[in-house]
Design a protein that fits this description.
The protein is mainly alpha-helical. Helix content is 73%, strand content 0%.
């Protein structure tokens, strides 16, 4: 019998792969770390634990988006504002 949370886990993995394209250390580094994190938890079968791990993954997505936003903000600020002020 297939796990009903399997689709949610796959969706999370795909979203993390998409978000990881702009990772500062490169997408290859991010993909390797992502794969090892998912493989480490591949044997988890408790639905509550899976939900906790998915929630943690969603939090990581939000943190990465904040990191990217801050990096873009700093780049824009550097371009348009005088650094001497």
């Amino acid at each position: 019998m297939a796990n009903p949370l399997r689709g949610e886990v796959i969706r999370l993995y795909k979203n993390l792969l998409y978000v990881g394209r702009e990772y500062p250390k490169g997408p290859v580094y991010f993909r390797e770390r992502l794969k090892s994190a998912f493989m480490k938890n591949k044997d988890v079968s408790d639905p509550e634990k899976i939900k906790q791990l998915v929630a943690k993954g969603e939090h990581v997505i939000k943190e990465l988006e904040a990191l990217y936003f801050l990096r873009k903000y700093r780049a824009m600020k550097k371009r348009y504002y005088d650094p001497e002020k």
